[in-house]
Design brief:
heterodimer, A: about 290 residues, mainly alpha, 12 helices, globular, B: about 280 residues, MetI-like fold, 2 domains, 14 helices, about 0% strand
């Protein structure tokens, strides 16, 4: 094979796949979002921006946006803060630390769907242990997955549990690259520990934090679909219906092709903003190796 | 002296906190094991048990029957292996093209690939992708589950980045010896890249194994579903009756990736940090 044609041949498989399964659907999606299916035929009529206007006048969809923003903001901030503290604990040279790491990293290898099943079990009002514990200690009996606002908290728990190892792994890698003298921290030395965190650790790790926040936003926007589908199916009363769940319902349960395509386009625009933001802010500054 | 007492207290405190947190994090898995080993008559016993008191194994075969988990595991394995192999081949080829060749249109090709980072096909574009699968007649086949995910910008960029670190003199020497570009890739570059390739494969494998939304949509018949959909089918079928069966099925479903992770944890962690691909 000559060096002239080699690169083109080498690129064919990649571009075949992304052309057929990324570019084409993207264009298709934009196209569909400006059309509406006729009630009886398979004919598509051009409707301009109507799908988008209907989408944002539809209170159920704007409610979905609010749910998504609160779910993403809550899960991501809890995960990032807990992960940093946990990574600091795990960065110490103390006996057994490798074992603790193994256990704490474990949920990384567990899928979102399985995380959803495990938490459905723990939060189940009859067989679950969380309610048993709450009843015994506080006399509380909560229907976690089927009442507002507990269903929302339930998916946040499962999401934080599933997402945390990823963040801890990155923070730990970041901490290991900071010289030991700067880190010398001690739990019992409360005041100076807090100062170290605020003035040394947080600023030094800020590029990693940026990266993690962006990755966590993407995870909670999309991959967490499985957690929601297994635990609450978007209920009760849509209180856990995020944008991706709404898209799934409109596209596949209710067959609203035009509206669903408009929802895809909205998600795509959000993705673009997040990704551009990531490359502007993070990529230039973070060097993991 | 004072310092060392302080340090000792600190160590003990850290140990206690870490043991507690490890326990809390592993709690769902521990309790799943406990529940899976309980006899159907004990499942609703109150208070719920923390550790198994009996060692009943009957829930495992029942879970395998209820949703045909064996078949679903096989499907997940086929899908994850096919996606991993596909992604590695396309990624190595494209990365090699970008790292080692000058050619017309290189910058455009690079930008075209870069844009795909905005467009995760398996989530944002499920609807148009599904309609395309319908046109191809691929709905409910392995093709639909695997082919659309066999190339990714991330793998290509990683491979390119890695190949750029290999000295150019090596390539010149190989060319003088009369080796063509494919021979150089196969004989020199790949053997030099094995640890990176292994790490990338692992991360890709777990990613593919864990896919949920796309298999949910594109598979129709029960024998084409993957194990991730299987656990959801189990919970829908059994949540009113026997959580022992659900947890047995869940443990079967999570065992492959969890055991894989436990055995090669270091490789996982290293390649995860290197790649930054979200699993």
């Amino acid at each position: 094979m000559s060096r002239k044609i080699a690169p083109y041949l080498l690129l064919i498989p990649t571009f075949l796949v992304i052309g057929l399964f990324i570019y084409w659907p993207a264009v298709y999606s934009f196209n569909l979002s400006f059309h509406r299916r006729t009630p009886f035929g398979n004919r598509m009529i051009f409707v301009g921006w109507k799908n988008f206007i209907r989408l944002f006048e539809w209170s159920e969809y704007t409610n979905t946006v609010v749910v998504t923003v609160s779910y993403v903001a809550l899960s991501v901030s809890i995960t990032v803060i807990l992960s940093l503290l946990l990574a600091m604990l795990l960065n110490q040279k103390i006996p057994g630390v490798r074992l603790y790491r193994t256990f704490i990293f474990a949920p990384y290898a567990i899928s979102p769907a399985i995380a959803g099943v495990l938490w459905s079990f723990l939060l189940n009002p009859v067989v679950g242990h969380v309610n048993y514990f709450l009843t015994k200690t506080f006399g509380l009996q909560v229907e976690w997955l089927t009442t507002k606002p507990y269903a929302f908290y339930s998916i946040v728990f499962a999401t934080v549990w599933k997402m945390m190892p990823f963040d801890v792994i990155f923070y730990l890698a970041g901490l290991q690259s900071i010289p030991d003298e700067l880190l010398e921290s001690s739990i019992i030395d409360g005041a100076s520990l807090w100062k170290r965190i605020r003035h040394i650790i947080v600023p030094l790790l800020s590029p990693i934090t940026f990266y993690l926040v962006i990755m966590n936003i993407i995870t909670t926007m999309f991959a967490a679909f499985a957690i929601i589908d297994v635990m609450t199916k978007g209920g009760p009363a849509n209180s856990t219906t995020t944008m991706i769940y709404r898209l799934y319902l409109d596209a596949f349960a209710f067959q609203k092709t035009g509206i669903a395509a408009a929802e895809s386009v909205v998600l795509f625009l959000i993705m673009s903003v997040v990704t551009i933001f990531y490359f502007l802010l993070v990529e230039k500054r973070v060097h993991y190796q | 002296m004072k310092m060392s007492t302080k340090r000792r207290i600190n160590t003990i405190l850290s140990e206690i906190i870490l043991i507690l947190i490890s326990f809390i994090v592993m709690m769902p898995v521990i309790l799943a094991i406990t529940m899976s080993l309980q006899h159907p008559t004990e499942v609703f016993s109150y208070p719920p048990k923390l550790f198994p008191s009996s060692f009943y194994l009957g829930n495992f075969p029942k879970a395998l029957q209820t949703v045909n988990l064996g078949r679903l595991l096989l499907n997940s394995l086929i899908v994850a292996v096919m996606i991993t192999i596909g992604k590695m081949i396309t990624g190595v080829f494209a990365g090699y093209a970008f790292a080692n060749f000058r050619f017309k249109g290189k910058r455009i090709a690079f930008a075209a690939l870069f844009i795909t980072l905005f467009l995760p096909a398996e989530t944002v574009m499920i609807l148009p992708l599904f309609l395309i699968m319908k046109k191809f007649g691929w709905v409910n086949t392995y093709w639909a589950l695997t082919i659309p995910f066999m190339a990714s910008a991330t793998n290509t960029f990683l491979m390119r980045q890695h190949l750029l670190t290999i000295p150019k003199e090596l390539e010149e020497a190989a060319m003088i010896d009369g080796a063509g570009p494919m021979r150089y890739l196969w004989r020199i570059l790949i053997p030099l890249s094995l640890p990176i390739l292994a790490g990338m494969s692992l991360v890709n494998f777990v990613y593919a194994w864990n896919m949920y939304l796309w298999p949910l949509i594109v598979t129709m018949s029960d024998e084409m579903k993957t194990v991730q959909i299987g656990v959801k089918m189990l919970i829908d079928a059994e949540s009113a009756n026997n959580w022992g069966i659900i947890m047995a099925g869940t443990l079967i479903a999570l065992a492959p990736t969890l055991l894989l992770f436990f055995t090669v944890q270091n490789l996982f962690v290293k390649s995860l940090v290197r790649t930054g691909i979200k699993g």
